[in-house]
């Protein structure tokens, strides 16, 4: 129980002076400037000494406004007493500023965020068997440790020490030492918060420091910050606020607990949120989008807790800063998406990829928008306007929104990105000298786009079946164009026109023309095989389908041609010079196509066969 003022009778002036003299002796006994023993020992380690000293302080305080010599003695004594209480106040705070106890974070909650917080705080060291046990204050305010679904206020200082701090604070404030009390409390507790920050991996980085970091290092720091920020707001700051309330709730000064709370956490809170602010105003580039969205999601999840912990008028600036960062992160995400669209449209590479395979741009863009689809819940709220084409930009495709009029803004942006990717790929296809390879390139890349869409439930849902069918038709059309460009000359050799003559011999077939036709077919087929074995269709199913489609046209045509004209060649000289390949061999040769084989590899394969 807190020491109470001793009563004095109305006629007890002598008694009052006697009480003052006794109190003054107690104060002087503990004057650290005059006594070695007073410098070495602390009052608040002995409950009996605490009681005597606080009685003495109360007695001296009663005489501060007394007339004459007593007032002067009282003022001098109270200064000595306040200096001593300030030291005691600081000592209690310092001696109980141990790291946050991670065990006190354990609860029945299985939420991933809470588990992450607990895991982080495992590094903070101290362990206690008390866990998060509820302790009641003598003042009757109820539980010292309270929690909501996300905020977990824990015991930072033992309850007996909190009671001592409260007793000292009330006397310092009553004597006019409010500022000193706040400064001591704030400096010690801020050091404790700084210690927690270090254990959580939060560094003291200015906005400039953050912006100078390379992106790889920054990604790691963002991941760490997201986990640590939850602990800081929900545990560290919330617990500091509760501690301030319990230490200063019985002090007469209005809102002193607010002042002490802000003295303690304002600097660390600014340090914490400056990191997110630096990210929100940093140079925009596509690779930053997803970490910015992670930050945005973490901050929007934390915002109710920030508003709860920093609900005081004096902490308006913290709430405003958090809200402004959230707004800037949202704007940064919108800006990055727009810049990504422009980058896809204007990606400048002109060197054709070997073999007509999938262009690195296609892989990058489709992987990127697949990730975008995974952030759909966030981006649906952030992306509020449809994509727009600059009317003066002739190097951009037209988009007919009527085809996808039921789609939301985010889905339209994804469709627009796919459209401009195709537009860019069409331009790159023109750098191939071989028209057939140009069409194969388009086929491969559009097929890859279709497969990536089909492979993502979210992406497929946003793109929609209608546009997906349109893309499927696009790569099938490219496959048709490829076959026409690559095989029409070969198939043209297998026609009858130009082989029959009148009056040459009984059959009406010109043997010389037939020989030339076989020679042309052999030369063309050999060249197509040599070249297209080096081409590549990376998707195995598409590769097999394309080979089957070629054989469905080529095999019957060649078999029929041989059936009609083989005898004319074999009845003449050196038939092997003209009929160089059987139907079965032709089919085997076609099966070599699109494997990306070099000439050496083709030769080695033939020898092994």
Automatic annotation (TrEMBL):
Keywords (A to Z) from UniProt: Exocytosis, Protein transport, Transport
GO biological process, one term: protein transport
Family matches, as InterPro entries: Cullin_repeat-like_dom_sf, Exo70, Exo70_C
Domain of life from the UniProt record: Eukaryota
Stretch list, region Disordered: 116-145
GO terms of molecular function: phosphatidylinositol-4,5-bisphosphate binding
Pfam families (UniProt xref): Exo70_C, Exo70_N
Occurrences of domain Exocyst complex subunit Exo70 C-terminal (ranges): 224-588
Annotated Gene Ontology cellular component terms: exocyst
Family: Belongs to the EXO70 family.
Role according to the record: Component of the exocyst complex.
Protein name: Exocyst subunit Exo70 family protein
Organism this protein belongs to: Brassica napus
